Amino acid sequence: MPGPSEQVFRVMLRMQIKPEMGHEFEKVWLEVGDSVTAHPANLGQWLSRSADENGVYYIVSDWVDEPRFREFETSDRHLEHRQKLHPYRSGGSMTTMHVVAALPGAAS
Question: What InterPro entries does this protein map onto (predicted)?
Fold first, then answer.
């Protein structure tokens, strides 16, 4: 785990996807995902579908630090990525955080 000055910066998006568009959204997300993961500061990205809320997805991405994420967030690359996913969205929100600890599970 990085030290306090090198904490992983995590971004979590909650996306409400228009009815009946979930499978197409998942397909497009996979197709355009490298526009995020190819950024030198990106540590990885995950897409999850809610088990409790119909049409809700969560996207989690980890970054080496907040300034590098903010650099990406305002880039043309990010704008283009968002434009490709926007037709599927009916709402959403973003939460950012600093990872302060991690405990690996027995199965890892």
Answer: ABM_dom (IPR007138), Dimeric_a/b-barrel (IPR011008)
Residue 64 — very low, low, confident or very high, per pLDDT cuts 50/70/90? very high
User: Is residue 1 within 8 Å of 103, Cβ to Cβ?
Assistant: no
> Could you give the C-alpha distances from 98 to 8, 35, 41, 106, in angstroms and in order?
6, 22, 15, 24
Read off the pLDDT of residues 1-46 as tens digits, 9 standing for 90 and up.
444 446 899 999 999 999 999 999 999 999 999 999 999 999 999 9
In a domain, 29, yes or no: yes
Residue 50 belongs to a domain with what CATH number?
Answer: 3.30.70.100
103 located within any domain: no
Instruction: Taking the CA atoms of 48, 91, 40 and 70 in sequence, report the sign of the dihedral they define.
Output: negative
**C-alpha to C-alpha distance for 58 and 48, rounded to whole angstroms:** 5
